[in-house]
Amino acid sequence: MKVKVYNQKGEEIETMVLPKEIFEVEINPDLIHQVFLSQQANKRRIIADTKDRSEVRGGGKKPWRQKGTGRARHGSIRSPIWIGGGVTFGPTTDKVFKKRIPKKMRRKALFMVLSSKARDNELIILDNLKTEKPKTKIMADVFKRLSLDKEKKLIALPSSDINLYKSLRNLDLTKVIIAKDLNVLDLLSFKYLVMPKDSIKKIEETFLTKEK
User: Fold this and answer.
1) Strand spans (E) along 80-160
2) pLDDT tens digits for 54-67?
3) Whole-Å CA distances, 55 to 58, 61, 100, 184
4) Of 179, 170, 177, 178, nearest to 204 (Cα)?
5) Alpha-carbon span 104 to 21, nearest angstrom
6) Apex 125 CA angle, 123 and 130, nearest 5
7) pLDDT tens column, 141-165
8) What is the rounded CA–CA span in Å between residue 206 and residue 135?
9) Cβ pair 194, 148 in contact under 8 A
10) Is residue 87 a contact partner of residue 50, using CB atoms and an 8 Å limit?
11) What domains does the chain contain, in order, with CATH numbers?
């Protein structure tokens, strides 16, 4: 598949051929959905935690004698029917939401989403993306020239670049990621994928080499 390559001024300067093993993969929506849900579940943080009757403080003494008071019989104030007692079937930190998906399936789903981005013209390739100093306005101008300033976009860099990261992190609707860390969840959360040509090589090195 051929795609256009732009410079930081938003000008088309050349075309390049994308590796078909990554960007021309047949789409399987069910697999993509399965991997997407698993990644969402694996990121889930368990915050809610309730105590059952065995964890509530107090309640060692029977509240009142069994018979003769005219009141219902009770054995402990830790009972769930008492205010301040334990919670029945409440959320706990013991629950596990993680879902395991085989590596080959995750990789295949990633290639499918990348293929979909390329096919739908949602993949923007730049000859280079750099800045000599951390300046948000410089990057804002780049995306304005590419008509992406009001679009949700994921920036995939070939390697860590502190100047670029500082220039991009404050932009609205923008997330920065290293190409080797690309995943289905991030790709589906942003409409456009923007990356320099060198990121394509990094994707090949990371995912195709390991697959063989």
Assistant:
1) 123-126, 153-157
2) 999 998 899 999 99
3) 9, 15, 32, 40
4) 179
5) 14
6) 130
7) 999 999 998 999 999 999 998 999 9
8) 30
9) yes
10) yes
11) 2-44+97-211 (3.40.1370.10), 47-95 (no CATH)
